[in-house]
Write the structure tokens for this entry.
Amino acid sequence: MTTVPARAGALAAAVLLCIAAPAAAPADAAADAAAGARHFANCTALNKVYKHGVGQNGAHDHVSGHSRPVTTFTRSNALYAANKKSDRDHDKIACEKR
């Protein structure tokens, strides 16, 4: 067995730690996407977790009349795909709510 100088051993340990330790995932949408996006039975259940709904990245709320569009929904392609059936107006935002 050969001995490794202390400095080289510490460097090797730091490199190994960087390779082995996974990056911390942000909470909410990114965590759901990484763990397999969560499916909700209906909009009531979805809005308890995601107050303003979930939509694809780049989606825009379609509105009629003088109402303002919802812009505060959670953006996640994976979450939207898991709950696409709840997008009644097909604007790429499921269960949007003010």
Observations:
- Residues 25-94 form one domain.
